[in-house]
Design brief:
Length: about 260
């Protein structure tokens, strides 16, 4: 399905990766430098183990595994025909969903190097990857059952515009899923922005602060959303005292 659409749009294919015509992106170089400074650049052998790779950033991957398990359980019940992940990186999450849910999946990112790894490791008749900008009009006719954002929404500057754009890409009854993504109260956002700025400076990547955004809960109020996992709920706070779980919510926004 996805590959037929990309062919019609005149996309080229490079090492099993679909490429948007004329697309260029400078952010990827800044992002890659930051990933490497954080030791989040994974070899093929490591990527194949995700999210069960526990050599580096063990706590983070334990948390992301729990987020994945919750999402998988939901999608196994829903059995969506198509899933589009925006900001898929090296593709580990879509690979798992493609194998276990059986959906036709597509991963999109502006980071070509990780996408090439994803296409090399995981491409199949059910799973494809594309280098491009989902906000471009070129993708206006794309329709999917599930649009997934896993730790990627914070790289979009305008939350309201971005969500409204993504809603136009949903098929009837479709859902936007946002996981592993921070949101802030009004009195928290400025302090969080300062912490991020200091962090990127310390890592030697000050340009990252211009591409990392701190979205507020208030910005979500205009959308009819469900918080399927609420880390602030007493039951999850209690569980987290025994087994660490995600500090980030799981949010679903429908097509209504």
């Amino acid at each position: 399905m996805f590959e037929q659409q990309f062919e019609k749009l005149g996309f080229t294919r490079n090492d099993r990766l679909w490429c948007q015509p004329g697309f260029e992106n400078e952010f990827q170089h800044i992002y890659i430098a930051n990933r490497k400074s954080e030791r989040r650049w994974y070899t093929d052998e490591e990527a194949l183990l995700l999210p069960y790779f526990k050599v580096r950033h063990k706590d983070e991957w334990s948390i992301r595994q729990k987020s994945f398990d919750r999402l998988l359980k939901h999608l196994l019940r829903k059995r969506p025909r198509t899933i589009l992940e925006i900001g898929c990186g090296n593709g580990w999450l879509l690979r798992r969903l493609s194998e276990q849910v059986g959906s036709i999946c597509c991963g999109m990112d502006v980071n070509k190097d990780e996408l090439l790894q994803a296409a090399r490791l995981y491409s199949s008749p059910q799973l494809s990857f594309v280098w491009g900008n989902i906000l471009d009009d070129l993708f206006n006719d794309l329709k999917v059952d599930v649009l997934l954002l896993a730790s990627s929404l914070q790289y979009f500057r305008e939350l309201s515009y971005t969500i409204n754009r993504f809603k136009t890409l949903l098929s009837q009854g479709g859902e936007i899923h946002i996981i592993d993504t921070p949101f802030y109260a009004d009195d928290e956002a400025d302090e969080a922005r300062k912490r991020s700025s200091q962090y990127f400076d310390k890592k030697g990547n000050p340009s990252m602060k211009n591409h990392y955004f701190h979205h507020r809960w208030r910005e979500l109020e205009k959308f009819s959303y469900r918080m399927v996992y609420n880390p602030g709920a007493w039951i999850h706070r209690l569980k987290s005292t025994m087994v660490k779980d995600s500090p980030f919510p799981w949010i679903i926004i429908g097509d209504e």
